[in-house]
Write a structure and sequence with these properties.
0% strand
């Protein structure tokens, strides 16, 4: 009689093999890797400012002597829009030549959340700006409280097309150009410096851009008021870290002044 050998226990079932890791999509991989540093700084901003002033001088020479009296509306439109648009175009060109393009270097990535933040800070800024403008007018008088563009078109009728072009520029296009220059190019130049911490670098960029933005309008009597206007716009950029938020905040802040000029130019209302 043979004795049966004890059976060896069957090995436990092996776990199924794990799926190999899926490499990220090319678009997603770009966000996983830090963007290379740009090679432009304050020199690029100074170049853009020189282009801005030179463009304004060129427009003045181009239109020639307009004689006594107020400037023609076409001259006002050209002198208001062209220099800032040309300077913003040069700022974008700098990011292509010496950097990674405007979407990376100027933080132009689009987020709907940035639109909401920009709208919120723009509305807050509009309230503070309205109060500050009223107090400033009481302090310095109506003549000294008026902005440069308002003084050029005050109590003057325009054609519908000219009035609409001025409105669209002051409300939408002008803020985009100014934000590219100041809270895009200048902000990026300030952040490029070797600060003790990234947070301090962003705050220093906010302070510098706020001050330079107010002074660059070359309206000494309104500099204090322009500082009030610039703070919430800069905060939108500081909080989100991206430019679209400050663009939206700037556009919200400019809406009522642009609408006022539009209605006055069309003779619908006088202010």
């Amino acid at each position: 009689m043979t004795t049966s050998q004890p059976r060896e226990p069957l090995p436990d079932a092996l776990p199924p093999p794990e799926d190999p890791p899926v490499p990220p999509e090319p678009a997603a991989a770009a966000f996983l890797e830090p963007a290379p540093a740009h090679r432009w700084g304050f020199g690029a901003f100074l170049l853009v400012e020189v282009v801005l002033l030179a463009s304004a001088a060129f427009v003045s020479v181009l239109v020639g002597d307009t004689g006594p009296g107020p400037l023609p509306i076409r001259v006002v439109l050209l002198g208001t829009m062209l220099p800032t648009m040309i300077a913003a175009g040069v700022a974008v060109l700098v990011t292509y030549v010496r950097g990674n393009g405007p979407f990376t270097d100027l933080r132009l990535q689009w987020r709907w959340s940035d639109v909401r933040v920009g709208f919120k800070y723009g509305c807050i800024g509009l309230v503070f700006t309205t109060v500050a403008a009223y107090l400033w007018t009481q302090l310095v008088g109506d003549a000294n409280a008026t902005s440069a563009i308002s003084s050029l078109v005050e109590d003057r009728r325009m054609s519908v097309s000219a009035a609409v072009v001025m409105f669209v520029y002051l409300w939408l296009l002008g803020p985009i150009c100014e934000e590219i220059i100041y809270r895009g190019l200048l902000w990026g130049a300030a952040e490029r410096l070797q600060w003790r911490s990234e947070r301090w670098g962003r705050f220093a960029a906010f302070l510098l851009c706020t001050a330079v933005f107010a002074a660059s309008h070359l309206e000494p009597l309104r500099t204090t008021l322009l500082l009030v206007i610039a703070v919430p716009i800069g905060l939108a950029r500081l909080v989100t870290g991206r430019l679209p938020a400050s663009i939206v905040a700037h556009q919200v802040n400019n809406f009522l002044p642009a609408l006022t000029i539009l209605l006055g130019a069309l003779g619908v209302a006088s202010f």
